[in-house]
Specification:
alpha/beta
Amino acid sequence: MSLEKKHMRLYEFIISKGKLSLSHLRELKSKRGFTEDTITKNRLISGGKYLLEIEKELFSEFKQEELFESGICISDGKNIQISPTLLEDKIIIPYLDKNNECYYLRVHKLGLKGIPIEIYQLRNLTEKGIILTEGEFKAMAAQQLGIPAIAIPGISSFSDKHLPKLLGVLNENSVKEICVIFDNENKSDPKLPNYKENPAHRHDTQYYAYYMARILNKEGFRTRIGTLPESWQYKGKIDLDTALAQGKTKEDIQSVIEQSLDPTEYLKSLPSEVATLISKRMARRYFKESIKIEFNRYVATRRRGKSEWQEPISNFIVKIIATHETPEGIIREVVFVNQFGEYSSSFSLEAVDMSGVDSFKTFCLSKGNFIWRGNAEDLANIWEPLFLEDDGRHIIEPDHIGWIESEKMWLFGNVAVKGKEEMRPDKNHIFWTEKRGLKPLALGVTSGRMTISEGIPYLNLGESPSLTEIRSYLGETIGDMQANACLGWMAAVMFLEDVFDLYGCFPFLFITGRRGSGKSTIAEWLMNFYGLENAGKMAADTTPVGLQRYLAYYSSLPVFVDEYRNVKQVTYKNGFLRNVYNRQSAGKGIKSDFGVREAKIRGTLLISGEETPEDNALLTRCIVVAITEKSRKINHFNWFMANRIKFSVHVLNVLRNKDNHLQKFIKILNEGKEYMTGQKLDDRTAINYAIVAAGYAVLFGESVDFAKWITTEAQRVRQDYQKEQAVEVFLDDLIYLKTTKAINDEYWDVDGDKIYLYFHGLYNAWAKEYIKIRGEQAFKASSIRDYLKEETGYLDCHVNHRIGDGTKSCVVFDYDESPDNLKNLTAHTRTNCAQSQIDGNHND
């Protein structure tokens, strides 16, 4: 302290001549919360050009050597003048000792040229327990509240070269307990003023608080870390003087001190990614390098016996710009810097290029005049410190787009939405969250002999025709209620994850109509709402593997399958399509002797075709919308083609307000499902149509007319589905076989009021014909027999009854209660039986 004390008289002279401007006085009171007593006691003055008025007196009172040495004056090479720092319109802060004398001067946030920074301030060291903070105004705020505090203007400096000075001052003043309270600041939100794009630069305060507390603990001080509450933050930041200005009291700050943590507890309390970043920085600080960097070259220390020498092993150094986590593994983006300080362009460095001397040497030469001469140990020794310097700038390249579950965010090519936060990509197309960066990847799908590149969906961020206008024009094109159903399903897709959480399923939209009806075009317009402009995947040409990859890539988004038909090239995929409804993923074998790799299903399906599936299980998973000419009032094709790329702003608006919409969506979904099941609809049909109703309500509000239509439609569809059930197919096919004389009344009998079916014979005849017609195995005999038991009029099975020339095991029905198609099958036999009975009576 001797050098500074030597300048006390000079610093006191400046303070005595200085004055505090009215604007600075107001700022200290309003922004900092200081009282006039605090301002006076700390002897604050303003800098400014008015100090030039004392130059003559200053030069006559003090020697030139002292003026330079104290930092008060500088020389421009010809003349001596007051330091320009003192002439700025900033507050000048005196550092006062216990005698209230100034031993150091510092302009707010600026130091005097050539003068080392000091501790603020010795006068405050009157207690064994203190707050350690950063910045003089913070210490003044704590002092005003009656809590002893000192400040270090530069936490990085006092944790390194100026640390001995801090330790000396603390020991000299018998300090025993320290609570480190630095600013609490949000640097992760781009909308806040102190946002840092690089994640590594967002947590310096936490790192230095932890490091300082650890060092002080090792030096024998009981040190803890206090954190000012986030709820106190203003514009993403809170510090002690801002807290004072907010009206926080001594009790509030004492509460922070009481809740302070020791360094180990503090590190554990931080988010895992922040704690990891701090731990890496600590490890890097203490890492002992065996490879040095000299003039942008790696230099290794070699030893042989007692001899030791330095050997250059490269003509460049490596800098890691970012780490990309891709579906194929970690890829590092690096630049090389040569011995002349010239930077290469950035390029990708994969693990295979880093792992061996020869591969790395080849890689270096392939990137320019970069030579590597080191051995395998040298190579490992350059990677280790580089990994410790990893700044947390990890870039995830997810293998899907749309909803990213791990990040709880929606990701598109030009916008990302996380809760209420909306993000835009940087120039490298990367979205930076608090934790990491995310970079959308396009999908390359190999299906059959074709490799297809799928574009990343981009959402419209500008204007669009209103939803009401779109609904009106679509209604005139395909029918009002059909348009409502399409738009309701479109909006409901944005709640796909929420529906799965509730019911574990989500219906497909199936648009059907005659050739030329415009069904595929309507489907494409709906896909435009999601920023997708590609045409549909052809049902016959796209393999199940190709479809699976599309459904894995488009997360909580639809995949458009066009030209569905009931032909072998398509129907063999029905089992896979059915599983999409419940996200039952397919398993794929892996190279090891045991195990499978799960193929993810993340999206849903929009299907179009001239005919709906004959597969009843697939059909019951669909919302069917029929496009007919009679429903078309006006053809708005040209309007839709001109405006369709704008539609996606409406999906973005749903996502922007999804938290507000969700409660309404779930309420209407549950109410609709309960109402429809009360109308004797099965759960699946009720859930499917209630989902569409809930999606419609999110866009347009509740509609009584649409609710009635959707219920009627669900009931109609349910009746159609019943006709398509397995037993219906079985009985209808038997009537066909009877008509073609493939079977006859030797397979059944009507005796009085009972129908006897020779089930084994009927099933074998039907199953053979089923395979021939449909190209797939028929339902199992046991399943058909069980289904028959559920039909009206069923009485018994395995009943022996004489049919034709022998006794057979039969399924028995009550004739009057049996289904119509069963009566139709056996009608001729009953007529014959009735006629025989009449003839017998006549003969009698």
